[in-house]
Fold each of these.
Amino acid sequence: EIVLTQSPATLSLSPGERATLSCRASQNVASYLAWYQQRPGQPPRLLIYDASSRATGIPARFSGSGSGADFTLTISSLEPEDFAVYYCLQRLLWPTFGQGTRLEIK
Amino acid sequence: QLVDSGGGLVRPGGSLRLSCAASGFTVSSNSMSWVRQTPGRGLEWVSVIHSGGNILYTDTVEGRFIMSRDNSKNMVYLQMNSLRDEDTAVYFCARRDILTEYYDYWGQGTLVTVSS
């Protein structure tokens, strides 16, 4: 099983600031990595796929980078609705999620 | 759109069947999955049925859960047998997009509680 480790566990920032979230895989997953956002009581929402491609309807302030085992999700300027939990997902093998990064308002 | 249902309270060893109704696309043309979420274990992939009909399960449910598809009703199901405490979770059905091969549409989730 491929283990994804996300950091930090919690990120406290203010609206308008830049957020940088990390995801490290236990083995090379090439670019088979996605980022999801989850708000309370909602299902996960696909933001980024193949490490750096934005999903349909996702604002340009969300961007992804990386390949192999190290990946980053960047939110360039936080909007109030961006405060949520973010998960990375690999699909190279049986899909696994990271444990999540909670982005909270400072 | 995906609407999942069928959750509830069940005793250990019992059974439950979850349903997922799809609209706006054909379930037989896409891979469909069940994913569950708990506060302790996070998000966990449970099962997948591919468009060709091949079905795969995570190790912890293999032999106990059965995923199926009804093309005429455009629905997928998860028959859960021999339920354990650790199966308690919110269960989501999800669709894999044909082009991106990532899961882009999700149901709202249905809560399964296994408890005596």
Amino acid sequence: AQKVTQAQTEISVVEKEDVTLDCVYETRDTTYYLFWYKQPPSGELVFLIRRNSFDEQNEISGRYSWNFQKSTSSFNFTITASQVVDSAVYFCALSEAVTDKLIFGTGTRLQVFP
Amino acid sequence: DTGVSQDPRHKITKRGQNVTFRCDPISEHNRLYWYRQTLGQGPEFLTYFQNEAQLEKSRLLSDRFSAERPKGSFSTLEIQRTEQGDSAMYLCASSVEDQPQHFGDGTRLSIL
């Protein structure tokens, strides 16, 4: 069965600190996608990144970076120099290649204090 | 591109009543998904349409739930004889093949 685990329920940091959000997944598929979504207090899920199972290259986008390691079934997300606007719940998700339905983790609530 | 639109944003109803939610996907998106999110949890998949065809339904979608996408554009999700456990945020997402899903703001349902 497919499963996504986000063990960190809540993280609090002070502005400008770096923070890493952990994500561990389980799947028997050889072809799959991994995602991160951000859910600010307004409620809308905002797409951040998608990686396919064949691409383990790490990715950096501004202050955001993602580390995908198939050997440990992990897809971790790091925010560098965090800002108050980064405060949100962050969800890691997994999808099959065929239906694209998303399996979400329980989310990590990040609070960045000024 | 105006994004995925959901209506209403909030719905309060008494137990036992029927409710219907609407989702307007991003234009040209042929795939449409419904998810349910309860407090402190991640969204859970309910059902998926490709054009007007409903291709997959979760076991979470009991016989009180029905979803339609009659012309392959907007979709409706109806819950009959609502129960306390139906209180949740109902999220709609749309996509085209091989592209990530984009979500609407959701409809928050509260059952009194």
